Amino acid sequence: MSRYLPKPEESVVPDGAVRKRSIIAFSIFIALLVCGGLLFAKLYNEPQSADNVQPTLRQGLKANERLFSLFYSKHREAKTFTKQDAATKVRVNGDVGMDGTLDTAWRLKVARNPGDTLVLTMDDLKKLPKTEVIFDFKCVEGWSQVTWWGGVRFSDFLKAYNLVPQTGLKYVGMITPDKAYYVGNDMPSMLQPQTLLAYEMNGQPLPQNQGYPLRLIIPVKYGIKHLKRIGVMYFSNDKPKDYWAEQGYDYYAGL
Ligand SMILES: Nc1nc2c(c(=O)[nH]1)N[C@H]1C(S)=C(S)[C@@H](COP(=O)(O)O)O[C@H]1N2
Ligand SMILES: [Mo]
Questions:
Q1: Contact 54, 46 (CB under 8 A)
Q2: Residues with Cβ within 5 Å of ion ligand 2?
Q3: Which of the listed residues 33, 40, 96, 162 has the most CB atoms within 10 Å of its CB?
Q4: What pLDDT score was predicted for residue 1?
């Protein structure tokens, strides 16, 4: 005995309603077309600014930048590891600005204000509290390694040397003593508590090829930003010169 199956209820839409829906759909289509056309015309007619980007597009880029810096606020922290996780054979990469060897004649020059440069020795820095960080060091070339560093937390250094007003500026620039390698880092990343002026690796003074006597460790950034062998440090609102950004790499180089 065949079972009686009720027919699925047909939804009968009256002709008038179909026409109305078609008109609405078509109107939306036309409206979008007009908006697109207007935007194109606006972009097409806009004078380009100095950096070859139309102001409307620039606004979009600026909004992206703001969104980005929200995610990468100074509260973010890189994942940390234990000393047992740290590599004993630490990879050496990049030797720009690393010619020859440095000795105790080295000084850290900090351009505090125009005409006011601090000149510091390694002993000055070692008097400040020591902070250690063990994190996964990542290079843009595609390798990473858990490594252990010790030194002065950058924010502690600023407090100790009356450099807190300089945190009102947007960037910190660093240069090797021979000026061959240079980086710029944004202030929020510099103030992140894991950022160090490092003078130790695996509990020992830095090897020459890894930045003796002082290097930057900034765990929220890719390796390119961890300048080895700091000679000069300065503060500015303009983006400091950056070696790899000049080669086309992302200036921010955040993880
Ligand atoms: N002075 C200087 N610092 C530098 C570089 C360089 O070529 N010169 N290379 C950078 C890059 S690309 C990386 S990945 C790290 C590598 O640090 P490491 O040699 O201690 O592993 O240093 C960074 N700091
Ligand atoms: Mo790198």
A1: yes
A2: 139, 223-224
A3: 96
A4: 45
Amino acid at 8: P
Residue with token string 């109107």: 27
- Spatial contact of 216 and 137, defined as CB atoms under 8 Å apart: no
Does the model's pTM come out above 0.70? yes
CA distances from 246 to 8, 182, 203, 243, 249 (A): 67, 10, 34, 5, 7
Number of Cβ atoms within 10 Å of the Cβ of 213: 20
Residues 223, 99, 253: CA angle, nearest 5 degrees: 15
* Rounded CA separation 218/175 (Å): 15
Per-residue pLDDT of the chain (255 residues; tens, 9 = 90+): 445 555 555 555 566 666 676 666 766 666 766 656 666 666 566 665 555 566 666 566 666 655 665 555 545 899 999 999 999 999 999 999 999 999 999 999 999 998 999 999 999 999 999 999 999 999 999 999 999 999 999 999 999 999 999 999 999 999 999 999 999 999 999 999 999 999 999 999 999 999 999 999 999 999 999 999 999 999 999 999 999 999 999 999 999
Instruction: Decide: 224 in ligand 1 pocket, CB within 6 A.
Output: yes
- Find the 175 Cα to ligand 1 centroid distance in Å: 13
User: What is the rounded distance in angstroms from the CA atom of residue 236 to the CA atom of residue 78?
Assistant: 25
Q: Are 251 and 239 in contact (CB under 8 A)?
A: yes
